[in-house]
Automatic annotation (TrEMBL):
Repeat positions for RCC: 60-119, 120-176
Residue ranges of domain Tyrosine-protein kinase ephrin type A/B receptor-like in the record: 344-392, 402-446, 481-519, 644-676, 694-732, 800-840, 873-916, 979-1027, 1033-1081, 1087-1135, 1150-1189
InterPro entries, alphabetized: Furin_repeat (IPR006212), Growth_fac_rcpt_cys_sf (IPR009030), RCC1/BLIP-II (IPR009091), Reg_chr_condens (IPR000408), Tyr-kin_ephrin_A/B_rcpt-like (IPR011641)
SMART domains in the record: Ephrin_rec_like (SM01411), FU (SM00261)
Organism name: Prasinoderma coloniale
Pfam families: Ephrin_rec_like (PF07699), RCC1 (PF00415)
Source lineage: Eukaryota, Viridiplantae, Prasinodermophyta, Prasinodermophyceae, Prasinodermales
Domain of life: Eukaryota
Name this protein carries in UniProt: Tyrosine-protein kinase ephrin type A/B receptor-like domain-containing protein
Length: 1219
């Protein structure tokens, strides 16, 4: 017999295993009268509910009695044993529906009941508010109803051993140890925490009922349909589920359930929301297997299970545990069967509880493997758990894998490369090239031996440098020998790519020059304008070179000109002939005068004379190349080829002039180049021929009276213009006539030519040629007037040339003249008047009045404005209607009264406040924000007006919007749809979530951002599951990223979904964006370093430092006594020793310093210079021996070492040692 458990306030007892007695109260009729046996009822099983009792008789009949308001007694109609309250049955009554059923056990809950048949079927009845009956809906059942989802097409396919009922849920235990549950899950009592929603998918066109609907859950697929449970309800065979049915639901499972009759309890078919769902059909409790017994409490469930150890599973036949075979595991106490190790894993032993991922370099393509396969040579796999040979990636170009099962590829060593992927070895660099770096991907990375070197073998690490005096301009194998330096060039270093051109001013006419000293300086008379000269260029005309090695010949000075070649040869021949005549013999005919000389005395020039002739004709001296300009000429610039005659107005009285002297102001000279001095006087001053009118020590003429020369150097004098005169000769300017006077002629000789202006005219300034008539409004009543007198303000004079004050007239009434000097009086404009003669201004009409006429002469012309009109300013010519939105009820006003905010007035000239009308909201929401409105405006989108006369419209709350104008109700506000948001009040539309954000609920005020490491590339996303992980080599550092960024050079991203990339370590670099593996980080080559993580390039070792190994994080300094003046060096051998006379006192120097005065150094590679000994001093820089230190003079001595001058030697009273 089944054990009984207490329910509410009664406990029935089995007596003699056949009769039922009451043990407690009878408040609901659930218990029998004390000691009373109903019809001698004999039972074999009892179920106790809340205020009611169920029993199975020995004949198999099921009875119930007690309280049954929700149908939990299973009687379809009212029974004759019911109490007056119609819900209570006082005596055990058979349940008619179960009369022909073989019931195994009965079970009571609080509001519903259940029975388990011997064939495994489950009957449920009573309340079904939360689907606790498991029949697929929430309608109550007053008679036992079979739970159809537990019955297959050919009978029961779920073998249950027991069921248990809670307050609002039901649980059942299957013979295989798993648990099913249905009904309310408000407290999680059904063991499922899924979200759900319903969507309509079809309507029966005849009945109008829903034919089927989709239940959307986040429960995984294999949990939903495991073992044919049909967790989503009845799935008719005629309804196929296609792949596209499951798409677009964010990786959740979608099932179809047939509904016959009415729609679900939520008729709107909208999202129910997050939380614990209620399940109207049985579903498997995920995560609970091998249960042995269970019991449903009021709002909770308890279960006890017995499980096999990990690595074993329950044998359903024997009840014992059996070990899982090779390639299979059982890793949980709930396992019903051994799980096959998935592809990418293996298990080499039996009885295991976990599969082992394939190690890097291996893979397992099939499930249930007992071992993994090796990636073949040339491929690699850097991660564990690979399930396909395709995951054995080919070694990228620049690397290789010589063995199988490689977890990573080796970089090609220096001197080799590999252009193809998936190779076992690398290709050696060809002859004539080398590669200092590892990981070469192309023959192009085999660098041609640099220019300046030769003779390379395959895989060579260094090249032989060309010796001084040679070069090799071609890289690689194009040239295997060094070429000699050509003429005009030299090479003084090893490894020269090109020979250096001889500097300007030098030349070299031989090959193989190895020092710059082998470039000879250009001799006198020549120059070297360009580098690399084979020969020097003779100086051109008007230049000379009197020292060797010039890069440009010096130009002849200003005041001289250059001799032509023929002129130089003639002068040289004459000089040599004169020298030979002095020696008693003549040169060859043509060299000089030989007339009268005997033929025997004519001879050729000697070698000395030829050398002298060549020197005098090669422009080697200033005198040979240049000659001074003659008297009367000049040259302005140096290097002149021709002399220039002095222009008119200038003269020159000496040889070698650089400019001509100008005739002084007041004089002139009208002939160019003819005023040359005729000689010099006793004092050496130049003399000139006598000339009429000339004076002083120059040949220029004074200007006659009536003319002038205002500047020096003039060739002609100018006549005095009208209004001026000149009464003296040699004038530099003319004298102007006084103001008030005029002179109409040119060339006037004296002041008598100046005449006074007549009355009615004037001359305002001196030097006037004519007098000007007085303009209108002015007069002049005297002779010699310098200005005209203006008529006073309030009067006018309309004519020119007035000569009396009484010609000015006062302005009449209605006119005015605002200032003096008026030609006419002006009529008063409309809006003003002038009521007296001689007015200087018109009086404006006051505000509130107007005058439309010109020339008014009385204030009576200003008239008050009527009602509805105004005159806002003084001096108004007419009154204006009050504008739209305003009114004026009084006459003579200067401003209108505006209608208040919230009202409008749509015509002009209103004279009543009653014309202002409130904004209406009966048809549309309107408002008037400002006072004085002509009309009311529709409330803009996002706002509404629900009261008349509003100045401002009300705004919608955040998360809602109104898309149209003129809303008159807050009910027009629409919640933002999922995937959109409104983050401010008064939205006219909701914005789609920006890329990188999503909004899962309606009415969102803002969107949620995708977490770091993910991105969302489009607008309007509705769920976090739409956020995609960044692929390897990319990252997203912030929330709400619209796209992922490539890992920058110097960093890499080995996995998906990274919020930040990993940095290459110090000593490495990586110059490409988007790298996915650490192997992309390359070691810094020799001669470079990287002192920080995440470097995208290596820094070159600076001068004075070197790096002799790859992957360096810093460079080494050259030791004291050595220096390094080239960057990027890779060996300490590159540090050069300082020469004698120099030293390097510090580490890392890029040049040696000269030994200062007072020191010397005769050994290479020294860090310090030796000091001059006591008794000596040193004045020489870079001294190489102690002999460079001079001894102190006799009777003087110094005890200090390193003295720098004789001033350091002090006087002593004894002779200094001679040695």
């Amino acid at each position: 017999h089944a054990a009984m458990r207490p329910r509410s306030a009664h406990t029935p007892q089995l007596v003699d295993a056949f009769r039922v007695f009451d043990a407690n109260g009878r408040t609901r009729g659930q218990a029998l009268a004390r000691g009373y046996v109903t019809r001698a009822l004999r039972v074999r099983s009892i179920g106790v509910g809340w205020h009611y009792t169920l029993a199975i008789g020995t004949d198999g009949q099921v009875y119930s009695w007690g309280y049954g308001e929700t149908g939990q007694l299973g009687h379809a109609r009212r029974q004759h044993h019911q109490s007056p309250d119609s819900h209570t049955v006082g005596v055990p009554t058979p349940i008619a529906v179960l009369e022909d059923e073989r019931i195994h056990s009965v079970h009571g809950g609080r509001f519903h009941s259940g029975a388990l048949a011997e064939d495994g079927r489950v009957f449920m009845w009573g309340s079904n508010v939360f689907g606790q009956l498991g029949v697929g809906d929430t309608a109550a059942r007053f008679e036992p109803t079979v739970v159809g989802s537990l019955v297959g097409q050919h009978g029961v396919h779920v073998n249950l051993t027991t069921i248990s009922l809670g307050t609002y849920h039901t649980v059942a235990l299957a013979d295989k140890g798993y648990v099913l549950a249905w009904g309310s899950n408000a407290m999680g009592q059904t063991g499922t925490s899924a979200l759900f929603e319903y969507r309509r998918t079809g309507v029966d066109t005849e009945s109008g009922n829903v034919a089927a609907y989709i239940e959307r859950s986040d429960m995984p697929l294999h949990h939903a349909w495991d073992n044919g449970m049909g967790s989503f309800g009845v799935l008719p065979e005629s309804l196929a589920i296609h792949e596209d049915t499951l798409m677009g639901v964010n990786s959740t499972v979608t099932g179809l359930r047939l509904v016959r009759g009415s729609e679900p309890t939520r008729p709107e078919f909208a999202r129910v929301g997050a939380g614990f769902a209620s399940w109207p059909t049985p579903r498997v409790v995920v995560g609970l297997m091998q249960a042995r017994s269970l019991s449903a409490g009021g709002l909770f469930t308890l279960a006890v299970r017995s499980a096999c150890p990990r690595g074993t599973v329950l044998n359903a036949t024997s009840g014992g545990c059996k070990r899982c075979p090779y390639g299979h595991v059982a890793n949980g106490l709930n396992a019903l069967g051994c799980r096959v190790c998935p592809a990418g894993t293996f298990r080499a032993t039996d009885g295991a509880n976990a599969c082992v991922p394939c190690a890097p370099g291996t893979y397992s393509p099939k499930p249930g493997a007992s071992g993994c396969l090796a990636c073949k040579a040339g491929t690699f796999n850097s991660f564990s758990g690979s399930s396909s040979q395709e995951q054995c990636m080919r070694c990228p170009a620049g690397s290789f894998a010589s063995e199988e099962s490689a977890a990573e590829c080796e970089l090609c060593p220096a001197g080799s490369y590999q252009p193809h992927a998936g190779e076992r070895s690398c290709v050696p660099c060809p002859q004539g090239t080398y590669s200092a770096a590892v990981g070469g991907k192309s023959a192009d990375e085999c660098i041609d031996c640099p220019v300046g070197s030769h003779g390379l073998a395959a895989r060579a690490a260094a090249c032989s440098l060309c010796p001084p005096g040679t070069r090799n301009p071609s890289p690689g194998g194009d040239s295997l020998a060094c070429e000699p330096c050509r003429e005009g060039t030299y090479s003084d270093t090893h490894g020269a790519r090109q020979c250096t051109k001889c500097p300007r001013g030098t030349f070299a006419n031989t090959t193989h020059a190895s020092t710059v000293e082998q470039c000879a300086p250009c001799p006198e008379g020549t120059y070297g304008p360009a580098e690399g000269a084979v020969a020097c260029v003779p100086c051109p005309v008007a230049t000379f070179a009197d020292v060797p090695g010039l890069v440009q010949c010096e130009r002849c000075d200003a005041g001289t000109r250059g001799r032509e070649d023929a002129e130089m040869e003639q002068a040289a021949a004459q000089a040599i002939a004169a020298r030979m005549d002095a020696a008693g013999a003549s040169a060859l005919p043509g060299d000089g005068p030989t007339e009268g000389q005997p033929p025997a005395q004519v001879r050729a020039r000697s070698a000395e004379e030829e050398e002298l002739f060549a020197a005098m004709t090669t422009r080697a001296t200033r005198d040979a190349a240049c000659v001074p300009c003659d008297i009367g000429t000049h040259s302005v610039t140096s290097g002149a080829l021709e002399r220039i005659e002095c222009a008119e107005g200038t003269f020159s009285g000496r040889r070698g002039a650089t400019e001509c002297e100008a005739c002084p102001a007041g004089t002139f000279l009208d002939v160019a180049g003819s005023w040359k001095p005729t000689g010099v006087d006793m004092s050496g001053q130049p003399t000139y021929p006598p000339k009429m009118g000339s004076s002083g020590a120059h040949p220029c003429f004074d200007c006659p009276a009536g003319s002038f020369a205002h500047a020096a150097g003039m060739g002609h004098c100018l006549e005095c213009p009208p209004g001026t005169f000149a009464d003296l000769t040699g004038s530099t300017e003319c004298v102007p006539c006084d103001a008030g006077f005029f002179q109409p002629f040119t060339g006037a000789l004296n002041s008598s030519y100046c005449q006074p202006c007549e009355p009615g005219t004037h001359a305002a300034s001196s030097g006037t040629g004519t007098c000007m008539p007085c303009p209108p409004g002015h007069y002049a009543d005297l002779y010699g007037s310098t200005e005209c007198v203006p008529c006073g303000a309030g009067s006018a004079l309309p004519t020119f040339g007035a000569n009396a004050t009484d010609m000015c007239s006062l302005c009449p009434l209605g006119t005015f003249a605002p200032s003096s000097g008026a030609a006419t009086c002006t009529r008063c404009p409309p809006g003003s008047f002038a009521d007296g003669e001689g007015s200087t201004e018109c009086t404006p009409c006051p505000r509130g009045t107007a005058n439309p006429y010109e020339g008014s002469n009385s204030s009576d012309a200003c008239v008050d404005c009527g009602v509805g009109t105004i005159a806002a300013e003084v001096g108004t010519s007419e009154c204006y209607n009050c504008t739209f939105g305003s009114y004026q009820e009084n006459p003579g006003r200067s401003e209108c009264v505006p209608c208040p905010a919230g009202k409008f007035l749509d015509f002009t000239g209103s004279f009543s406040r009653e014309d202002c009308t409130e904004c209406d909201v009966s048809v549309a929401g309107t408002h008037a924000e400002r006072s004085g409105s002509r009309e009311c405006d529709l409330c803009p989108p996002g706002t509404y007006a629900d009261e008349p006369g509003m100045a401002l419209c009300k705004t919608t709350r955040k998360g809602t919007y109104i898309p149209f104008s003129g809303s008159n109700s807050s009910e027009d506000a629409i919640p933002c749809g999922i995937g959109t948001f409104a983050d401010a009040r008064g939205a006219s539309e909701c914005e789609p979530c920006n890329a990188g954000g999503y909004a899962p609920d309606e009415g969102s005020e803002k969107c949620n951002g995708c977490p770091p490491g993910t991105f969302l590339p489009y607008l309007g996303a509705v769920d976090v599951s739409e956020c995609q992980k960044c692929r390897a080599g990319m990252y997203a550092p912030d929330r709400g990223s619209a796209s992922c960024k490539l890992c920058p050079p110097g960093e890499y991203g080995p996995t998906v979904g990274m919020a930040k990339c990993l940095r290459c370590p110090a000593g490495f670099f990586q110059d490409e964006a988007g790298s996915t593996t650490k192997t992309s980080c390359k070691r810094c080559p020799k001669g470079t370093f990287s002192d920080r993580e995440g470097a995208n390039r290596c820094q070159v070792c600076e001068v004075g430092r070197f790096s002799n190994e790859t992957g360096s994080t810093s460079c080494y300094s050259c030791a004291p006594g050595t220096y390094l003046d080239v960057i990027g060096m890779a060996s300490q051998d590159d540090c050069k020793a300082c020469e004698p006379g120099f030293h390097a006192p510090y580490y890392g120097m890029d040049a040696c310093e000269q030994c200062p005065q007072g020191t010397y150094n005769g050994i290479k590679g020294q860090s310090e210079c030796a000091k001059c000994p006591a008794g000596t001093y040193g004045q020489v820089l870079a001294a190489t021996e102690a002999d460079a230190c001079d001894g102190c003079p006799r009777w003087r001595f110094t005890s200090d070492q390193g003295s720098t001058g004789i001033q350091d030697c002090y006087y002593v009273h004894q002779a200094a040692p001679l040695d």
